[in-house]
Amino acid sequence: MKNKKPTGMRCSKMKEACGIFGIFAPGQDLLRLTNYALYALQHRGQESAGIAISDGHNIHLKKEAGLVSEVFPHFKSLKNVSALAAVGHVRHSIAGKDSPENAQPLLVRYRHGNLAVAHNGNLVNADELRGNLEKEGSIFQTTTDSELVAHLIARYGCDDFESSLKSVLPHLHGAFSFLFLAEDKLVGLRDPFGMRPLSLGRWGDRYVLASETCAFDAIGAEMLRDIAPGEMIIITKEGIKSLQVLPSHRSALCIFEFIYFSRPDSNIGGKNVHSVRKKLGNLLAREHPVEADIVTGVPDSSITAASGFAEEMGLPYEMGLVKNRYIGRTFIQPWQDSRNVGVQLKLNPVKKVVEGKRIVVVDDSIVRGTTSKNLVNMFFKAGAKEVHLRISSSPIISPCYYGIDMQTREELVGSRMKIEEICREIGATSLKYLSPQGMLDAVGLPPDGFCLACFSGEYPV
């Protein structure tokens, strides 16, 4: 499918770019461990945080809007829970959908007991499924796909949770990594294309699941492997079980995990994110060299690519921008005016470094163009002689329907303008993007294993 919106999707529908973590470790301080893991995943969502802990009989849940550091010091009651397993979630949503009830994990009670659900991704047929359930009398308290899946699980008349989940899965289309916490087990699940990341690790003789391996490092766990597309992992006191519950004909991991979303110290598909980003910068320099005095990167996700660009060009890398560490990532802030103000509060050029210089600014992407225009203007105001913008990804021309906050074609500057027009719009001396082949070469994994829909308009689902 090319340049078409998948049937049943509304551009205004909630899309989530979240971080999830799960651990099965009876008798351990799971509040502390999950808290540490969510700190490591904070970059994936900054609107709300939540932790659900099972004691083997009941599931205790605390969640609230805010950063992990703001939310969990207030929940001392969870510290007294005799823990069996836990799941945690940090969340991002699109504009207007950041209501408190949408915070995760979602806790439901049905005939098989308690169930907590944490989700990263987006179901493209959610509207259709929700509409059918509402016609049959279902009442929804949130607008999340997590509640939708919980309703479906509850409606199937199977004798146990696992059988109900297996019955639901063929009806789910889109991108999803799920964690389910039942009273006596932890279940991880990945969609048949593997669009959203999910990894399995080991903490001592116990098991953990997380969106990124940096969460394992935060608690001293060892990474074992990535969960395969369509695979379900079930962890109980008896051990771990793997089931291929959905047929998978190809992988379509979102390539933005390497370009922007994941932390540099995370590993995906056996590849270190930092190493891939440095290669992105190397190849960008080979494709689009420029005569300049210094190279700088936009903190934090572009610093590695900028160092690779500088290394390939034989130019000095300088800290041309200082980041205010207390301001969140502008890309995943839901309101446009927040993005505009956020750029100015978040980044400040180092005047003595850039003054009178021809500078190369390396960034990972241009989505709406707001950040790039502000950055270029900042550098010129700081006295830069020339500002050459180099982007370590290709032009984004199509919306993402699988969980990234790029909702409509109209808001994407790469869809509305040619590269030369974008350059004039943002005021740069020159603007060049890395080619699609360059992105794939930098990752070094099979080229048919990625979702490139936002760059090509060709959607895997």
Question: How would you summarize what this structure contains?
Answer:
This protein has 461 residues and is of the alpha+beta class. 29% of the residues lie in helices and 26% in strands.
- In CATH, the topology of the largest domain is named Glutamine Phosphoribosylpyrophosphate, subunit 1, domain 1
Strand content: 25-35%
Net shape: elongated
| Terminal CA distance | 8 Å
Overview of this protein structure:
The structure is a single chain. This protein has 461 residues and is α+β, with helices and mostly antiparallel strands. It has 2 domains: 19-249, Glutamine Phosphoribosylpyrophosphate, subunit 1, domain 1; 267-456, Rossmann fold. Helix content is 29%, strand content 26%. The chain contains 16 helices and 23 strands. The strands form 6 sheets. A 7-stranded antiparallel sheet has the order 3-2-4-1-10-9-11. A 6-stranded antiparallel sheet has the order 5-6-7-8-12-13, covered by helices on one side. Strands 17-20-21-22 form a 4-stranded parallel sheet, sandwiched between helices. A hairpin with a 2-residue loop joins strand 9 and strand 10. Residues 1-16 have low confidence and may be disordered.
Question: Which helices and strands, and how do they pair?
Answer:
Blueprint: E1 19-24, H1 30-40, E2 48-54, E3 59-65, H2 68-71, E4 85-91, E5 106-110, E6 113-123, H3 126-135, H4 145-155, H5 161-168, E7 174-182, E8 186-190, E9 199-203, E10 206-210, H6 214-219, E11 222-226, E12 231-236, E13 239-244, E14 253-254, H7 256-261, E15 267-268, E16 271-272, H8 273-287, E17 294-297, H9 303-313, E18 321-323, H10 336-346, E19 347-349, H11 351-354, E20 358-363, H12 370-381, E21 386-391, H13 413-416, H14 419-426, E22 430-433, H15 436-443, E23 450-451, H16 453-456
Parallel strand pairs: 14-23, 17-20, 20-21, 21-22
Antiparallel strand pairs: 1-4, 1-10, 2-3, 2-4, 5-6, 6-7, 7-8, 8-12, 9-10, 9-11, 12-13, 15-16, 18-19
Helix pairs in contact: 3-4, 4-5, 8-9, 8-15, 10-12
